[in-house]
Amino acid sequence: MSKHPERTHRQKILLQAGLTLAIILIAALITTWLIKTPPKAKTQRHTTVTPQVEVVTAKTGEGELRLHAMGTVIADQSITLTPRVSGQVQKVNSHFTPGGFFKKDEVILTIDPEDYRLTLIRLRGTVAEARAALDLEMGNQRVAEKEYELLDREVNSREKDLILRKPQLDAARAALTATRAELKMAQRDLADTKVRAPFNAVVISKAVDRGSRIAIGTTLATLAGTDAFLLRITVPEKQLKWISDTPGSASPVLISSGADTHSGVVTHIASSLEETSRMAVVYAQVEDPLCLRAKNRQKQPLRLGSFVQVEIAGPVLHDMVVLNRTMLHENNTVRILGENKQMIIRTVTIAAREGDTLYISEGLKPGDQLITSSFSSPRAEIAPTADVQPAGQTPEQSSQPAPGPEKNL
């Protein structure tokens, strides 16, 4: 054991305090040196970087405008079939079922005709009686004329008519005419016991069957004509100027149904816009939509209520700059490379759209360099790297529309 423990402990404390003080002193000296000797930034010469961009030369072209839209298939002819006579349904055609087809004047169902046959027989007898009564009165007429000749005195016209039995003759003729009219009505009623298709039709729905008791006006079925359907097409109102419903020059329509296509023609344009979408409504007629004719039997038929793609052929547009939709920016503007290698923002007028193709009537002229690249610094000087010709265009350098408003950035 140490002879002086207290002295040894005091020496350790003094040593630790000295080391701590030395570390603090060294750190203060280093901090002071760093503050007094900060690093100096080296000045570098500014270098302007000219972005390289791709450009496309604007050129005029022409092409047939085609408007793409969606349409709904609806019936051109549609009726609620009702009978003209009452009775019990005696027979129904085997095709009288939803989806069944009927030719014009084909019998759909038969109402029990027995009562109408009996009425017809009775009225034929009534007509025979009326005809006999008229013949008898004609004989009386000849006797009266002989008696009038023997009378040998002057009478007024009314007395003469009474003497010659003219009222009796008129009544007999009227009775015969009335009974003949009743006979014709009975014949018509008997014929109406056979309910026939008023046109080539398909059954949409049926409401009666064999054994049903029906009255005049009872709904028998709903029929739609099969010779033609209508397409109800909605398009933006501004596109109506490209669509014609004039007979002889109406716009053709192409309808896509699965892998097959059907052709039609615009028949009329609705006089009002849709209330919700504010779109214009165009109607087109399609013949043989269910492909019942031999030449169309290999096609897929159009079904009522189907939502189909429609292409309406518009006019041929001449001498307009043709652009791809990707070159158009906000507010119908395009970016043009100016003569001083600055980008120019110019507003253009779109005459028509066809899918991704735009027809520009104002704001661009042939030879303008359209910038297709995107970059973050539009104010910098730029330079073209390539002049790209858009695929599929056959431009004509014949028209130079006046440029629209522009601004140099």
CATH topology of the largest domain: conserved putative lor/sdh protein from methanococcus maripaludis s2 fold
Name of the CATH architecture of the largest domain: Beta Barrel
Q: Which strand-content bin applies to the residues?
A: 25-35%
Distance between the termini: 93 Å
Q: What's the number of helices?
A: 4
Listing every helix as H and every strand as E from the N terminus to the C terminus, the arrangement reads HEEEEEEHHHEEEEEEEEEEEEEEEE
| Tally of separate domains | 4
**Proportion of residues in helical segments:** 25-40%
Mean pLDDT: 82
Structural class given helices, strands, pairing?
Answer: alpha+beta
CATH first level of the largest domain: which class? Mainly Beta
- How many whole angstroms does the radius of gyration measure? 49 Å
Shape: elongated
Number of strands: 22
Strand order of the largest sheet: 2-11-14-13-12-15
Model description:
This protein has 409 residues and is of the alpha+beta class. It has four domains: 53-63 and 318-408, conserved putative lor/sdh protein from methanococcus maripaludis s2 fold (Beta Barrel), CATH 2.40.420; 67-76 and 227-316, Elongation Factor Tu (Ef-tu), domain 3; 81-112 and 193-226, RNA polymerase II/Efflux pump adaptor protein, barrel-sandwich hybrid domain (OB fold (Dihydrolipoamide Acetyltransferase, E2P)); 114-191. It is built from four helices and 22 strands. The chain has a six-stranded antiparallel beta barrel with strand order 2-11-14-13-12-15. It has a four-stranded antiparallel β-sheet with strand order 3-10-8-5, with no helix packed on it. The chain starts with a helix and ends with a strand.
